[in-house]
């Protein structure tokens, strides 16, 4: 690495900013950029792990930058939010039909007011000065019927936690370039200070072990950790600091993610200040094997899975006509039903977060992955989660068990009174198989389950414009391709499609549209091309949907339109089903009305 290059630590609040910073840095020969993604406290932790070495200047944004500035003396440059950044976000929100507002710190709101005046727009805007004020403002807006906010990262995170929609105001390339220019200029004024600590660092690095050094306030001042489990290791060692400073020297062993760690702790004094230093090595620990289909998740893992999921981003669960919180608190088991891709697993995650047992593990018994070893463990082992209590137990994809295994499991649940000692959630895909349907009804009747039916996407086509805008806004955080929205004809095509695999398919199509689009707006031709491909793929795999030995063989050519392909698939299915409209509609996952529309 060149001695003349400025070593910049970038801490971006979202993935898209990281990509832009990396691309800009690759075009310059005067900087070495090391960039991570982390917001607020996570960003502070990243800074703590990196400020002790290999860093001349820190670049970050918003509240994260303010928090980092309080824990280090290394110069920090804040990435600004320009008028153009706010304009781009306003344009992205144009497709959103519900009531929304701009919420942000004074720098954002001042620019937003100017833009609204110039554009003659009546977008409401609210100024905040702290995280606490942001929280109160969002509560007020939600009570007044606002459904979405355009905001900075802090407010966006709080809004999603409250069940509101949010689009983050991202920083454009110009703002990031300006921050890097400032960092280079600032560095030149204090370069000589960086040489003072190199000697000590080289001595520590020469030890040969992984090393991490904490001060007596638990701040990391140096580390040379190479393990992928750095966060878990850091949390463990922080808890050991008081013991290390008291004992002076001690050793401990810890198994983390199948690795056995041997850790040596020491207390070192320097200029009357105490430091806790840890040296450690790790090797592969003996493995006892894993039980397929049985997994344990803590509250943080479940919340992370839900709040970063497609269903949370588009906020579909908040529009559900069920009182989710009340059903979660109810003692009755819950049966989640619906077609493939309607979000049953994420609904289970949401139910878990509302339940008082959420401080205990969520046990997921995945019937699609459950093997003989797993079934034996569930039914015979004294450590079986079926013998535990005060947990949320999620039995997913019940329909994938054989009829005998499913009924045996039901008998065991009743014998052990499992559904009385735990919160039991079960999911099952809708099917025309009478034996599978009989098993599901047996569970619902014998366990007295409450039912939550997850509606298919084709019955919620009015939500497609809002959902598309919200998800595109999220995609823009992770890519440098900033798509502003859809042409009206493109949205209409999305609403006309049947979506046989529902939200899972919808997400995949939006991802692909975002990747192939080279213009600010996704066009009708973009959508038509993707949906034609979707229909062709489904047509070629449709034999798997038919409960007979017959298969559908289609000859497709490039001249066929989406309607032509759909009509051909329906005709072949009708032929196989002796022109029975109801059976055909069920097999294709569409309504009789939709089937008739395609045949016209």
Q: Note the beta-strand portion.
A: 15-25%
Biggest beta sheet attributes: 6 strands, mixed
Mean pLDDT: 82
Gap between N and C termini: 68 Å
**Count of separate DSSP helical elements:** 25
| Percent helix | 40-55%
Radius of gyration: 28 Å
Shape: globular
Pfam families: HTH_8 (PF02954), PrpR_N (PF06506), Sigma54_activat (PF00158)
Keywords: ATP-binding, DNA-binding, Nucleotide-binding
InterPro entries: Homeodomain-like_sf, HTH_Fis, P-loop_NTPase, Sig_transdc_resp-reg_PrpR_N, Sigma_54_int
Protein name: DNA-binding NtrC family response regulator
Layout of secondary structure:
Layout: E1 6-12, H1 15-26, E2 31-37, H2 41-50, E3 57-61, H3 62-69, E4 76-79, H4 83-92, E5 100-104, H5 106-119, E6 124-127, H6 131-143, E7 148-151, H7 153-161, E8 165-168, H8 173-187, H9 198-205, E9 210-215, E10 220-223, H10 230-247, E11 249-256, E12 259-270, E13 273-284, E14 294-297, H11 299-307, H12 310-313, H13 324-329, E15 334-338, H14 344-354, E16 362-366, H15 372-380, E17 392-396, H16 403-415, H17 418-421, E18 423-429, H18 434-447, E19 450-454, H19 464-478, E20 485-486, H20 488-496, H21 502-516, E21 521-522, H22 524-540, H23 562-576, H24 581-588, H25 592-599
Parallel strand pairs: 1-2, 1-3, 3-4, 5-6, 5-7, 7-8, 15-18, 15-19, 16-17, 17-18, 20-21
Antiparallel strand pairs: 9-10, 9-13, 11-12, 12-13, 14-16
Helix pairs in contact: 1-19, 2-3, 6-7, 11-14, 16-18, 19-21, 20-22, 21-22, 22-23
GO molecular function: DNA binding
Keywords: ATP-binding, DNA-binding, Nucleotide-binding
Organism: Youngiibacter multivorans
């Amino acid at each position: 690495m060149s001695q003349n290059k400025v070593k910049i630590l970038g801490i971006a609040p979202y993935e898209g900013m990281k990509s832009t910073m990396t691309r800009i840095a690759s075009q310059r020969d005067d900087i070495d950029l090391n960039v991570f993604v982390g917001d607020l406290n996570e960003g502070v932790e990243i800074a703590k792990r990196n400020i002790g070495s290999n860093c001349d200047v820190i670049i970050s944004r918003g509240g994260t930058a303010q928090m980092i500035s309080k824990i280090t003396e290394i110069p920090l440059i804040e990435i600004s939010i320009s008028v153009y950044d706010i304009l781009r976000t306003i344009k992205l929100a144009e497709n959103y039909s519900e009531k929304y507002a701009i919420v942000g710190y004074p720098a954002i709101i001042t620019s937003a007011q100017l833009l609204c005046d110039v554009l003659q727009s009546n977008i409401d805007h609210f100024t905040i000065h702290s995280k606490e004020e942001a929280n109160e403002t969002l509560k007020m807006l939600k009570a007044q019927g606002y459904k979405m906010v355009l905001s900075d990262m802090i407010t966006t995170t709080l809004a999603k936690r409250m069940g509101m929609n949010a689009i983050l105001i991202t920083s454009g390339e110009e703002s990031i370039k300006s921050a890097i220019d400032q960092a280079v200029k600032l560095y030149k004024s204090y370069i000589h200070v960086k040489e003072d600590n190199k000697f000590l660092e080289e001595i520590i690095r020469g030890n040969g072990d992984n090393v991490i050094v904490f001060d007596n306030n638990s701040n990391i001042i140096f580390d040379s950790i190479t393990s992928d489990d750095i966060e878990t290791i850091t949390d463990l060692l922080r808890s050991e600091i008081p013991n290390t400073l008291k004992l002076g020297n001690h050793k401990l062993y810890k198994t983390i993610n199948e690795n056995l760690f041997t850790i040596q702790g020491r207390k070192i004094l320097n200029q009357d200040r105490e430091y806790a230093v840890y040296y450690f090595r790790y090797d592969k620990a003996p493995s006892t094997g894993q039980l397929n289909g049985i997994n344990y998740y803590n509250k943080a893992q479940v919340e992370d899975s839900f709040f970063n999921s497609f269903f949370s981003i588009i906020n579909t669960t908040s529009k559900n006509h069920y009182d989710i919180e009340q059903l979660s608190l109810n003692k009755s088991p819950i049966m989640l039903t619906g077609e493939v891709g309607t979000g049953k697993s994420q609904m289970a995650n949401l139910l878990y977060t509302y339940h008082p047992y959420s401080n205990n593990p969520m046990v997921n018994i995945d019937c699609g992955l459950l093997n003989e070893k797993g079934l034996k463990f569930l039914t015979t082992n004294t450590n079986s989660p079926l013998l535990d209590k005060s947990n949320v137990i999620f039995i997913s994809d019940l329909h994938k068990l054989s009829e005998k295994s499913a009924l045996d499991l039901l008998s065991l649940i009743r014998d052990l009174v499992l559904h009385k000692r735990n919160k039991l959630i079960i999911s099952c895909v809708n099917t025309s198989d009478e034996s599978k349907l009989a098993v599901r009804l047996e569970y619902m009747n014998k366990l007295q389950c409450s039912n939550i039916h997850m509606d298919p996407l084709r019955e919620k086509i009015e939500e497609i414009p809002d959902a598309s805008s919200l998800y595109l806004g999220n995609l823009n955080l992770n890519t440098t391709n900033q798509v502003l929205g859809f042409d009206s004809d493109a949205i209409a095509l999305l609403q006309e499609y049947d979506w046989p695999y529902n939200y899972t398919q919808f997400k995949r199509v939006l991802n692909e549209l975002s990747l192939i689009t080279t213009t600010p707006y996704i066009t009708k031709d973009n959508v038509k091309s993707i949906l034609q491909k979707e229909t062709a793929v489904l047509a070629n795999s449709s034999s798997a949907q038919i409960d007979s030995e017959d298969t559908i063989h289609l000859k497709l050519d490039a001249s066929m339109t989406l309607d032509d392909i759909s009509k051909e698939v329906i005709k072949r299915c009708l032929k196989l089903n002796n022109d029975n409209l109801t059976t055909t509609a069920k097999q294709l996952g569409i309504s009789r009305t939709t089937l008739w529309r395609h045949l016209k």
